[in-house]
Write a structure and sequence with these properties.
Length: about 300
DNA sequence: GCGGGTGTTCACGC
DNA sequence: CGCGTGAACACCCG
């Protein structure tokens, strides 16, 4: 039994996530503080598609470090082993403290698992790291260093916008006829941006999302790279974004705030924040909702 | 019942 | 091969 309800083990939900680079980085930083140095007792998979690899090999291994590659989190363990986690569209990592109390604190609930909990990492003191994932696109992989390095996702991953230069970024766009928005969503071109930050970065750079990537001048490419840095750093400062429907808000009240600072994302019909007379339009690009101001984005 | 949703990958056609 | 499109994965919600 994973949680003993009769003995009133209350869950304290510490961390949740929403999955673009700033959300993943927020989770990684929080995880770093609480799970480094902990020894894994077991990993339980509650869904056949979630845990890939042999959970038995990480028993007794200690977590030494957390890393992030684009939107993927990697836990480095003793003995050349790693746990790689991709949250995809709906994954969350939650730290559950094992506490026995008379009454729950505000924001705590009885210690049964949520129906979307797909995997549980158990630690020696009874604390647990939960992987919740409504849509089951996400995964938890148990890998050796060699297997980690050969992951196709990692091999194809381009630089994060702060790890490259305007010139290098411009060069990366130069051969591409695809729309600039699709280019910056392509993790092999530049990593980290998802639909929210791609939309917001193009607004900040004043570039129309449908512009062919190769049509950007060096100056414009630099503006896009710099805007990606700005919006994603801002996202990290605000602790990422949390869905407005409340579906993803933490039980303990902790949640991201970037959703209150969207520049164009989800602002269809609203006046442009530049007050230039433009009204935010929504179109489809590569099957994804794309928001832009027709007045300032050229 | 349908369409849309913060990600990634693949199949197909040109 | 590049590129565009659409679908697939699976679930919830309006």
């Amino acid at each position: 039994m994973l949680v003993n309800i009769k003995n009133r083990h209350y869950i304290k939900w510490y961390y949740s996530s929403m999955p673009e680079l700033p959300e993943v980085e927020t989770v990684r930083r929080q995880l770093e503080r609480v799970i480094v140095g902990r020894t894994i007792t077991d990993i339980t998979s509650l869904h056949p598609k979630t845990v890939i690899g042999n959970p038995v090999v990480v028993k007794g291994k200690t977590i030494r470090k957390t890393r992030r590659f684009g939107k993927m989190i990697v836990l480095d363990l003793d003995g050349d082993l790693h746990i790689a986690v991709h949250l995809k569209m709906s994954g969350q990592l939650l730290f559950k403290k094992n506490e026995i109390k008379e009454k729950p604190d505000k924001g705590e609930g009885l210690g049964n698992f949520h129906k979307h909990t797909r995997a549980v990492v158990g630690f020696a003191d009874g604390d647990q790291l939960l992987f919740n994932d409504q849509r089951v696109f996400g995964w938890v992989r148990i890998l050796t260093s060699e297997e980690l390095e050969s992951l196709p996702f990692l091999r194809a991953l381009g630089p994060e916008p702060w790890d490259t230069t305007d010139g290098e970024f411009h060069k990366r766009l130069s051969g591409k006829r695809i729309a600039i928005k699709l280019a910056i969503l392509d993790q092999s071109v530049v990593s980290g941006a998802g639909n929210i930050y791609a939309n917001d970065a193009l607004w900040l750079a004043k570039i129309h999302p449908k512009r062919p990537a190769l049509s950007l001048t060096a100056r414009e490419a630099g503006a896009v790279r710099s805007a990606l840095v700005t919006v994603m750093e801002e996202g990290i400062e605000y602790g990422g974004s949390t869905g407005q429907d409340g579906k993803y808000v933490h039980v303990n009240g902790e949640s991201g705030q970037y959703q209150n600072h969207f520049k164009v994302y989800d602002r269809k019909g609203e006046p442009c924040l530049r007050h230039d007379g433009g009204v935010i339009e929504k179109i489809k690009l590569g099957g994804r909702g794309t928001y832009f101001c027709p007045s300032c984005q050229k």
